[in-house]
Amino acid sequence: MLKVDKLMVFYENALAINELSIHINEGEIVGIIGSNSAGKTTLMNTISGLLLDTKLKEQRKGGERITIFGSVSFIGNDITNTWADERVKMGIVLSRERHPVFVESDVKENLKIASYLSPKNKFKEMLSFVYDLFPALVPLRKRKAGFLSGGEQQMLAIGMSLMVKPKLLLLDEPLLGLAPTIQVKLIESIVKIRKETNVTILICEQFARPVLPIIDRGYVLENGMLALEGTGNELFNNPEIKAAYFGV
Amino acid sequence: MFVYGLINSAVLALMALGFNLTFGISGIANFAYGAIYVVAGFITWAFINHLNLPYAVSAILTIIIIGIFGALVYKFIIKRIRGLVISEVIATFGISIILLELLRFIGLIGFKYSLPVFIDGSVEILGVYVDIQRLFIIGLGILVIISLYVFTHHTKTGLAFRGIAQEEHTSLSLGINPDRIASLSMGMGSALGAFAAIVILPLGTITVDSGYDVLINALSVCIVGGLGSTFGVIIASFIIGYTQTITAMYLAPHWTMIVSLFAILVILVIKPSGLLGHQKELEERV
Amino acid sequence: MKNRENYRKERIDRCIKARSDDIYALSSYKEMWYLIFPRVVPIIGIAILAYFLPLYWKKVVITTCIFAMLAVSWDFLSSCGLLSLGQALFFGIGSYTAGCLNHYFHFPIYLTIPIATICGGFISTILLLPVIRLRGIYFAMVTLILPLMLARGIEATHVFGGNEGITGLSPFPNVWVELTFIIAGMWAALFALRRFISSDYGLIFVSIRDNDRATMASGINIYAFKAQALFIGSSICAFCGAFMTHLYMFTGIPVFTMEFSILPIAASAIGGIGTLAGPLLGAFILVPLSEILREFGSLRVVFYGLVLVVCVVALPEGIFHYLSRKYNEMERWVRLE
Amino acid sequence: MAILEIKGVTKSFGGVKAVEDVSVNVEENTLLGIIGPNGSGKTTLVNIITGFIKPDKGSVFFKGKELIGLPPYTITNLGIGRAFQMVKPFFHLPAFKNLIVPLSSKRVRSTSGGGYGDKDAIALDILEEVGFERDSSVPYKTASVLPHGYLKRLELARLISLKSEIFILDELFSGLSIAEVTSILPIIEKILFEGNTVIMIEHRLKELFRIANKVIVFNFGRIIKEGAPKEILEDEEVKKAYLGVEV
Amino acid sequence: QQYITLGIPTSLKLIEGHEGQKAAQLAIEEINAKGGVKVGNEKMLFKLEALDIRDGEPGVPVSEALLGIEKLILDKKIYAAVVGNFRSEALLAAMDIYSKYKVINIGTIAMTPKFQEKILSDKEKYKYSFRGALDSKYASGYVQSSMKFLNKEFGYNKVYIATQDVLWANAIGSLMEKWFKDNGWTVAAFDKYPVGATDFSAGLMKAKSAGVQVIMAIFDMPTSGILVKQWKSMKVPALLTGFISPLTGSKAWKTFGQDIEGVLESVWEIGYFPIKAYPPSVKFSAAYVKRWKEDIQSGHGAAPAYDTVYILANAIEKAGTLDSEKVVKAIEETDMAGVVGRIKFDNGHQLIFGDDPKQTACGGVFQWRKGKMLLVWPESIASDKIQKPAWMK
Ligand SMILES: Nc1ncnc2c1ncn2[C@@H]1O[C@H](COP(=O)(O)OP(=O)(O)OP(=O)(O)O)[C@@H](O)[C@H]1O
Ligand SMILES: Nc1ncnc2c1ncn2[C@@H]1O[C@H](COP(=O)(O)OP(=O)(O)OP(=O)(O)O)[C@@H](O)[C@H]1O
Ligand SMILES: [Mg+2]
Ligand SMILES: [Mg+2]
């Protein structure tokens, strides 16, 4: 479904992603595991197209120069130079890292804004879906998102990306700041979402412990390079991974 | 007194709403707003007097033209400096002086430019005569406020306006194209400005200088109300509008400016992010 | 940007900077010259220009310097997180202080200007103290309102000469004194502020803009520091105001006009915000430009606006940022291995 | 005696009780862990202690001195340092310059030297302590391009440079990989070893429970359980409200 | 060929400045067509350097205006300045500049009486400045005359005064207020409206409830047209008089139409529209219309600007030199017939105004009737009598 081929990303002279090739098949849950600054966010931004926008903005400001090589294709179409909102229309939706939500709007309005692309009659349905997933959000409906706690914002951010009904859902560190109960719940529901809607999911995490059991396949990134690749089980049982990502 | 305070407030609100739509709600500083307001007046005037179009047609044409103009300004100018607020302000301010001074240059000075009122005549309300145009202002003001509220809170595009102002990248990752929405908001804001001009200008003559006044009025109403809040704009226009009328009535007209500026100052000291804004608390949340 | 297959444009510092901005590893005259060159050339250039131009253009240089100082001060304030739309306020207060001292108490120039500088800064700071907690556009709004209000107040109450202001104040002895004085003042302000802002103490001001919550959590009383920044910034403006007062032997409510607030911002925007030198450069472009444009008669302001728009759109980062980047960095195409 | 006493602190935001009648004593030189579901009021409590929010009711004493009503910078200068849940470095400054600001605070000004480059040297020392490789270019990079792991360390470095006596770390480990966490743990142990007090808010329980002396559990703004890590782990109510799973 | 350069530092885009420039240009062209000015034995031509110093626009600092004047003096080497500053404060500040460079200037726009005061305070220093238009004291004189008439003919004695909150207008306002009180009128209120005011309802309501018969308004800002419209729509049963600049020109009827029937409007200097009883004005307006294809709209500044050029030309010829000291002397002794009447300066370098253009310079009052501007005051040249508008009881 998604194919990233020989991707290289430079921030000015620093190489953030080096010759990375990955692919995702329809209906899979794929994990990208990597410690800090491995380049996960950069990869996610490239796939979702946000990087193009950043690049343009930096260029206008005369800031750092971002250079991208390689190609990204989605269901057979080359989308390397497709703008982010077009990609969303094609079905690629990203829940960004560290929950940047619309702080001045209340929770419900955030979700409303998020449903920009989905048809109006689906709104109620999606809304109750999100509220089911994160019941903690229900009493907070009327609160401005900026006042939410870190974890609540994270829930909201994920909820917002679900409102779009993606085909390919990109989750960048979805577990960040969530309490263990919610983490478990989220992981369960990721599986559930996949089962119900057959959406393809790509998760980036460095906190691999909860994620590894549910992924079909996984890639391990290190300093922008692919270090390991395998099915969920393979990775789960890999002693190196255990040492590096489980702390045993 | 009551009636004229109301009218004054409605005038302020009408002037501010277009500005609020672009600046307050979608976060794009359009300091050419005042110029657009004046230009709209002159365009309508030209349509009526030179092309001999009927009033309604001229008005609608003007609103459309100005709307497109606003969108084009975004497309060719602001788009390139999006995010650099100071540059946005300076660029649009530059546009504003270009427009206004061009108007002056082509000789649109003097006192002969004025728009006709919708319906001539006046009625007596609460013991004072009020011309019908002023009633129109109140009515249309309310109408615009309501539709604006509905628009920004209940339509997708309106919500997208609010989105791009707050987190452009998040909006982008949700499929909202900030450039498209932003140019739309510029266009609509300008069109609203044109609308305000067409409604308000029949009260007097069209002059180039009023462009700057309109901008300052709109800016202060918008900020006092709290950026992004349609209701804030209404309340702010009422406060400022009535302080002006009351001062003019009981103190003296030349104190109005001082008193209303002072009112703004006091409001900002008490409510640091405007009447209905949450800016400060949000920023201070850690 | 041209995207040659498998080539990437690389950007390299011209490597005499060791690691950070103010630690230099100088090893040769060439490098020394490299450092000194961009600082010395404008100083000498402006000096030569100023002293050899015809009389009228000398006057223009003086006005330019005044606006340059206003712009530098604006940039200083904005790098401390105080977005000011009211340079006119500080300017006007300085101007009135000098004017009143000279008119009512007959203080000579060499007293009025220093006193006005200090007192002007002081009064401005006190005036803005109640709103020092405001941020961003809200603070800007207050600074925009205050000068309007003061002007109206003076108009309504007829104090300090009311509407027609105070005229016939003492002039400077001659144009050479004017020139020397203002040019020296301008360079002093620029270099002192640049030094100051990169010192440890100055860093605190910058950090406030960056994140005032974190500054507070670092044990810094941000309000005290903001007040200090206000004092420094407004003193500079007050100096300009006092100078202008004696230059034109006049003070009155027009010293509060918006132009004094807007031009510095425009200069900063096209010169490059956050560099202090950029706004100065911007002022040295805009003010003489506006004088040259006088030839266009009524279209002058139109062209002026046009230049503003074009500059801002063509180089959004600001001329100074652009130049210094080109000066400090090399670019070259490298092949991907 | 407890170094920090929190007495009956209550705070509500427009009807929602974020913190309700919370009383805790923090003993000197211990590590107090705070856990609880999202939105249970942990950060709000920290905000109250450090002066960022005024509580509706209650008081906080640091070494017997009332803190409520003092502005954040004064509290920081008394010796209570906090790290933010969402990192807040000075993005435009290089990493080591980030520390110049706390080093200029009233609390440490006198010891950090006023000469040219004095503070830089101290800053670099501290950064090395928290794991910025001294000889690399990392400490000189602008904070905005630093990876998240370093920013978290920078938060910690700020508290160290302030010579804080109480370190309040709000979700220091979130967003860090296990490797990062394990490299930071010794730093925290060292801080404790030096006689300081640490309060940690965490969702990474495994790591927290290893080093905590005492843990309190929040739910809906109230403390529902307080005790040694072991007890907490076994408590039924806590399991239901928060853990739900094995850790 | 040598030129005498005249500078016009003013707000060229405001109507008074714009028409002032055209009028001065007309005068110069006429003089040059006759071969120029005789300086000693030599004939010199006039040249015009107009510079938009924008001082009439709000928001433009006086220093910018002054720099513009310095540009004319230092860069364009003007010999004298005409038309001159808009704002009184700019004029007062500019006087210092003019005396610094010893440049003769004859202003025709700013109207503050402080001008003469300043000249008299240091006659030697400020002797280069003259004013070829009327000041607010004279202006109130004309208003008074019409008020006297209204009082005598119709028995009106209640008035509401509204002025624009600027120096010259306030000055007239206060003078009038005093005069009204001294002459047994009731002043319902005296309001000063800030420049740019767009709502006059508060004052008009006051006026209406006090039952005034006369509204005296002194405005030169364009938004004052609103006052007229509001006065009409609020049905205030009082006669509008005074000086409202949107009403001074022939195009006002087109803008306001029927609304302004019966309004009494003061003219600060006659001559800008043809007055049969005073032929120079007829000649001038004809020449102006011929040259510029439209008639003058502003009741202030334009006609005197035309005269000033002739004043200068005559003075130079009389002095026989360009030495400013001597020319100043000659201007002080000027006595000639201009379009605004007979031109003579008083000790404070102010043009002397009176009731008869044959004796002094002259302003006037006209009434709008059926789209026509009918001069009703001063009697020496009036073509008509003040009439009560039909709708007044
Ligand atoms: N805007 C930027 N400018 C310069 N370098 C950057 C920028 N953004 C990221 N980098 C660098 O690129 C590398 C990869 O960063 P990225 O954010 O993709 O990592 P990550 O795996 O998401 O890390 P984290 O776990 O901290 O989120 C890092 O070394 C980082 O410093
Ligand atoms: N300024 C505020 N205005 C309104 N509500 C607020 C404000 N600050 C916090 N809240 C609410 O108070 C509750 C407690 O928030 P707090 O940040 O303390 O949670 P937390 O325990 O730190 O959660 P997390 O683990 O997700 O960070 C939340 O529901 C939040 O929405
Ligand atoms: Mg990341
Ligand atoms: Mg928290």
Key terms:
heteropentamer; B: about 290 residues; mainly alpha; two-stranded antiparallel ribbon; 2 strands; C: about 325 residues; ABC transporter involved in vitamin B12 uptake, BtuC; two-stranded antiparallel sheet; 13 helices; binds adenosine-5'-triphosphate; binds magnesium ion
How does this structure look, described?
Chain A contains nine helices and ten strands. By secondary structure, chain A is of the alpha/beta class. Chain A has a single domain, classed as Rossmann fold. The longest helix of chain A has 18 residues, at 180-197. Chain D has eleven helices and ten strands. In chain D, β1 (2-13) and β2 form a beta hairpin. In chain D, α6 (118-129) packs across α7 (148-161). The model of chain D has no long low-confidence stretch (mean pLDDT 84). Chain E has 393 residues and is of the alpha/beta class. Chain E has helices at 15-33, 62-75, 88-101, 114-121, 123-126, 136-154, 167-182, 201-210, 225-233, 252-256, 279-292, 302-319, 324-332; strands spanning 3-10, 37-39, 42-52, 80-83, 104-107, 129-131, 158-164, 186-193, 214-219, 239-244, 264-267, 336-338, 341-343, 353-354, 361-362, 364-369, 372-377. The mean pLDDT of chain E is 86. The complex binds adenosine-5'-triphosphate (ATP) (2 copies) and magnesium ion (2 copies).
Structural class of chain E: alpha/beta
Give the ordered list of helices and strands of chain E: EHEEHEHEHHEHEHEHEHEHEHHHEEEEEE
Report the mean per-residue pLDDT of chain E as an integer.
Answer: 86
Total strand count of chain E, please? 17
Mean pLDDT of chain B: 81
The ligands bound in this entry are: adenosine-5'-triphosphate, magnesium ion
The strands making up the biggest β-sheet of chain E line up spatially as: 2-3-1-4-5-6
**Number of DSSP-assigned strands of chain B:** 2
Strand content of chain B: under 5%
Gyration radius from CA atoms of chain E, angstroms: 21 Å
* 3D shape of chain E: globular
Compute the separation of the termini of chain B in Å: 47 Å
Please report the number of helical segments of chain E: 13
Give a brief rundown of this model.
Chain B has twelve helices and two strands. With 286 residues, chain B is mostly helical. Chain B has one domain.
List the helices and strands and how they pair.
The complex is a heteropentamer of chains A (248), B (286), C (337), D (247) and E (393).
Chain C lengths: L6 E7 L15 H24 L2 H25 L7 H18 L4 H20 L7 H22 L8 E2 L7 H24 L1 H11 L1 H6 L4 H27 L1 E2 L7 H13 L5 H16 L7 H15 L4 H10 E7 L2
Antiparallel strand pairs in C: 1-4, 2-3
Chain D lengths: L1 E12 L2 E12 L3 E5 L6 H8 L7 E6 L2 E2 L5 H7 L1 E4 L11 H4 L1 H4 L2 H7 L5 H12 L18 H14 L4 E5 L7 H16 L3 E5 L3 H7 L2 E6 L2 E6 L1 H6 L1 H8 L4
Parallel strand pairs in D: 3-8, 3-9, 6-7, 7-8
Antiparallel strand pairs in D: 1-2, 1-4, 4-5, 9-10
Helix pairs in contact in D: 6-7
Chain E lengths: L2 E8 L4 H19 L3 E3 L2 E11 L9 H14 L4 E4 L4 H14 L2 E4 L6 H8 L1 H4 L2 E3 L4 H19 L3 E7 L2 H16 L3 E8 L7 H10 L3 E6 L5 H9 L5 E6 L7 H5 L7 E4 L11 H14 L9 H18 L4 H9 L3 E3 L2 E3 L9 E2 L6 E2 L1 E6 L2 E6 L16
Helix pairs in contact in E: 1-12, 2-3, 6-7, 12-13
Bound molecules: adenosine-5'-triphosphate (2 copies) and magnesium ion (MG) (2 copies).
